[in-house]
Specification:
The protein has 267 residues and is an alpha/beta fold. The two termini are 28 Å apart. The structure holds NADPH dihydro-nicotinamide-adenine-dinucleotide phosphate and the ligand O=C(O)C1=N[C@H](C(=O)O)C[C@H](O)C1.
Length: 267
């Protein structure tokens, strides 16, 4: 039995992850944690998630939530995740990270902790998006420099980071396949007399509104034709199932930084 603790237990993803743990074979919810002072502290994590009583109360201390857990699943915010990663590294627990919006420096800090413990960090835990990463690499290699690349992502109005972690990874995959440096060619903003589009740039556009779970489209736009590779998330459940699958996959792995491509055997 793999014993899992969940941070952000009362959040949008936290509830779906707690439900996915309940539905998975060989997995058990061992702890649940929220920000100290959160109104849900003391409540049953399963009841808050809407999947029935779990016998696990949401607590305000990660150390307490991890007491009888092997692995932590963390979908919160970069600053919170890095603090939680430090606790896991100190206690020798493994961790699955779904948070997005890391700066390059924060990403490096996460990699330093991964020298001590096995870590899965991925901006998108769905099978479909990870298949798209492979398709995008192949499309970019086939189409080369003759097609302009533009990426558009849509999310709900509560999302804090922009562009999404998934859109950034899509940009990185395409840039690498085209021999470009994503950080040099990503164009996040066009306004006024900004001039003609350069051949190398990858346009990154963001839409926020309502309850959109998450949609990503990469456009390869040529002369007289256009290819669109799109993924639409219809619920958060496959992200949650992916995170639980990653938690199981990590058991017995050596310390290091892994992603969903490793978990799904897509490398
Ligand atoms: N990798 C993937 O497949 C996916 C990644 N994500 C990413 O996951 C992250 C969370 O998304 P979402 O669930 O929508 O966000 P939510 O804001 O709904 O959830 C985050 C939760 O973390 C809580 N929290 C804040 N501080 C702490 C703390 N110190 N300890 C424990 N919990 C804390 C928040 O509490 P409070 O609200 O009170 O601050 C909130 O309940 C985002 O970065 C998002 O981009 C989302 C979906 C899929
Ligand atoms: O915040 C979200 O909701 C999501 N975030 C992830 C991202 O930033 O890529 C993944 C998914 O699209 C939902």
């Amino acid at each position: 039995m793999i014993k899992i603790a969940v941070t952000g237990a009362a959040g949008r993803m936290g509830g779906r992850i707690i439900t996915a743990i309940k539905e998975a074979q060989g997995m058990e919810l061992a702890g649940a944690c929220e920000r100290p002072g959160h109104e849900m502290i003391g409540q049953d994590a399963g009841l808050i998630a809407g999947c029935g009583e779990s016998g696990v109360a949401i607590c305000g201390s990660l150390e307490e939530a991890l007491k009888s857990a092997d692995v932590l699943i963390d979908f919160t915010f970069p600053e919170v995740t890095l603090a939680n990663l430090k606790v896991c590294a100190d206690l020798g627990k493994t961790i699955v990270i779904g948070s997005t919006g890391f700066t390059p420096e924060q990403r490096k800090e996460a990699e330093r902790y991964a020298a001590k413990i096995p870590v899965v960090l991925a901006p998108n835990m769905s099978v479909g998006v990870n298949a798209c990463f492979k398709l995008l690499k192949e499309a970019a290699q086939i189409l080369g420099d003759g097609f302009d690349v533009e990426i558009v992502e849509l999310h709900h109005n509560k999302k804090k980071d922009s562009p999404s972690g998934t859109a950034v990874r899509m940009g990185e995959v395409v840039a690498e396949a085209l021999g470009r440096d994503y950080n040099q060619v990503a164009n996040y903003h066009r306004e006024g007399m900004c001039g003609e589009r350069t051949k190398e740039e990858i346009g990154m556009q963001t839409v926020r509104g309502g309850d959109i779970v998450g949609e990503h489209t990469v456009y390869f736009i040529g002369m007289g034709e256009r290819i669109e590779i799109s993924h639409r998330a219809m619920s958060r459940d496959m992200f949650a199932r992916g995170a639980v699958r990653a938690a199981g996959w990590l058991a017995g792995k050596p310390a290091g930084m892994y992603d969903m491509q490793d978990v799904l055997g897509l490398k």
